[in-house]
């Protein structure tokens, strides 16, 4: 069948009308695995942090008609498009991974991975879509490819570009400026890189007719918690609420940790929302419209001699550690189920690279138990990051710290206090695992006051002053003043959007 689309440039101007023949994959019966891995958002943020910290150059490429480069690995026959039946007959055998084919993404993924291996790159264990060698870091999302390289290794990049052009038809997009609808702003003199999704906010505002106001916008994402609805379901209202909340899920997972808690609250009411829930969802988006130039930032930590400072020097200077995590919990705050909210976040070179705001799966009986479970989940995530760092040869020379604002939990984990006596086996398991990891110096758990807890805004709805403080602790900056007028014009236009896994 034919699919007709419009193509726009980054300024939002129509560049061409596009017609593409696609396969009716919805009519396929296939029982093999068709999953094609994609780059995780947290890995993208991690790589951007490295780009800022070590002054790496970033170049971007787009493979044209990417799927058609992959060959089909079995016999597949398709109906000939109506206008070509007289010329080719009623059936055609498919030799290439035509768009629409269920296995087409996987076939393309395998083809690209094979090509990168032939170019001398090796896949990073446990991290899909990331390849490295001694001089290059290459990552991709479907047909969008980015290369990171040190300034002194630009010759290796040029060689890679030639090899890529020999294998595929590509567009060279120059320095990394946009990636899947995410704007990348860089100040090489200051060693800073910002990520923001201002254009996505504009797109959602236009789609849902959320007009920009001339006055003040909401100062916080939510003013209060939300309870369940006892009203009759309304299909139209439910659809609008689910669409707003789904869009919020995207931005809260990519560049806006300050609305992660708001999304967690709204997502608990997807089945039967009422007008109050819909108003709350619109309130969050009005907050995002007012703060659309908030960006997460990575900074290269340097001394006056321009050399990178060590972990010890960072602590002495009173700045954040190069890499650390924070965990928090709100005990039994869900009035319907009495489950506790918990959240964690991890920062690398000032950029929040990983965060989560959710509700614990089981009910705990005390604040300490809730904090222990949250800390254990964050601890496991921290060890995952340490393994990921080693796999890309970015090894920490110190034991990373995990922050917690509950003194009883910290004392139990660090064995300054006797083991918590609990009959809840799952809590006891978390407790014993944490004590083991701290004892073996794989992680260190430190206490921090609640007003200095970066994860506090991931577990509760905060009043205005505390929310503003939380925004800074989460690593967000308002960069409206450093974006040029041309970039502001681009931000008001549509750009390429996608979904992360």
UniProtKB/TrEMBL annotation:
InterPro entries hit by this protein: DNA/RNA_pol_sf (IPR043502), RVT_2 (IPR013103)
Please, which domain of life does this record's source organism belong to? Answer: Eukaryota
Q: Which Pfam families has this protein been placed in?
A: RVT_2 (PF07727)
Q: Where is the Reverse transcriptase Ty1/copia-type domain?
A: 2-216
Q: What is this protein called?
A: Reverse transcriptase Ty1/copia-type domain-containing protein
Please report the organism this UniProt entry assigns to the protein.
Answer: Pyrenophora tritici-repentis
């Amino acid at each position: 069948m034919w699919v007709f689309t419009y193509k726009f440039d980054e300024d939002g101007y129509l560049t061409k009308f596009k017609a593409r023949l696609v396969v009716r994959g919805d009519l396929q019966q296939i029982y093999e695995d068709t999953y094609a891995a994609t780059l995780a958002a947290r890995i993208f943020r991690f790589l951007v942090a490295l780009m800022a910290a070590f002054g790496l150059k970033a170049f971007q490429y787009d493979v044209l008609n990417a799927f058609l480069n992959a060959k089909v690995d079995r016999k597949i026959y398709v109906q000939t498009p109506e206008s070509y039946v007289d010329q080719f007959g009623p059936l055609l055998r498919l030799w290439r991974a035509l768009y629409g084919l269920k296995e087409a993404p996987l076939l393309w993924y395998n083809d690209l991975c094979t090509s990168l291996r032939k170019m001398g790159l090796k896949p990073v264990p446990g991290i899909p879509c990331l390849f490295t060698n001694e001089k290059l870091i290459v990552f991709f999302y479907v047909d969008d490819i980015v290369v990171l390289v040190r300034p002194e290794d630009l010759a290796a990049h040029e060689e890679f570009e030639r090899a890529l052009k020999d294998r595929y038809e590509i567009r060279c997009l120059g320095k990394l400026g946009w990636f899947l609808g995410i704007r990348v702003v860089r100040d090489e003199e200051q060693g800073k890189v910002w990520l923001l999704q201002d254009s996505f906010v504009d797109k959602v505002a236009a789609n849902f007719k959320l007009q920009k106001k001339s006055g003040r916008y909401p100062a916080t994402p939510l003013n209060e918690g939300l309870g369940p609805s006892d009203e009759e379901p309304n299909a139209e209202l439910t659809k609008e609420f689910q669409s707003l909340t789904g869009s919020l899920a995207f931005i809260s997972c990519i560049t806006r940790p300050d609305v992660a808690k708001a999304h967690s609250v709204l997502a608990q009411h997807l089945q039967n929302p009422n007008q109050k829930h819909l108003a709350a969802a619109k309130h969050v988006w009005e907050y995002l419209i007012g703060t659309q130039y908030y960006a997460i930032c990575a900074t290269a930590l340097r001394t006056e001699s321009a050399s990178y400072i060590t972990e010890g020097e960072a602590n002495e200077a009173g700045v954040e550690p190069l890499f650390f995590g924070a965990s928090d919990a709100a005990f039994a705050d869900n009035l319907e189920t009495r489950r506790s909210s918990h959240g964690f976040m991890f920062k690398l070179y000032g950029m929040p690279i990983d965060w989560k705001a959710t509700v614990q799966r089981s009910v705990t009986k005390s604040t300490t138990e809730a904090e222990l479970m949250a800390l254990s989940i964050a601890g496991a995530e921290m060890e995952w990051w340490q393994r990921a760092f080693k796999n890309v040869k970015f090894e920490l020379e110190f034991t990373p710290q995990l922050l917690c604002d509950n003194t009883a939990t910290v004392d139990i984990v660090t064995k300054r206090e006797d083991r918590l006596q609990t009959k809840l086996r799952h809590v006891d398991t978390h407790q014993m695992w944490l004590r083991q990891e701290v004892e073996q110096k794989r992680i260190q758990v430190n206490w921090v006051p609640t007003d200095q807890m970066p994860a506090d805004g991931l577990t509760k709805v905060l009043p205005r002053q505390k929310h503003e403080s939380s925004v800074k602790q989460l690593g967000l900056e308002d960069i409206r003043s450093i974006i040029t007028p041309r970039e502001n014009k681009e931000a008001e236009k549509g750009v390429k959007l996608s979904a992360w896994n």
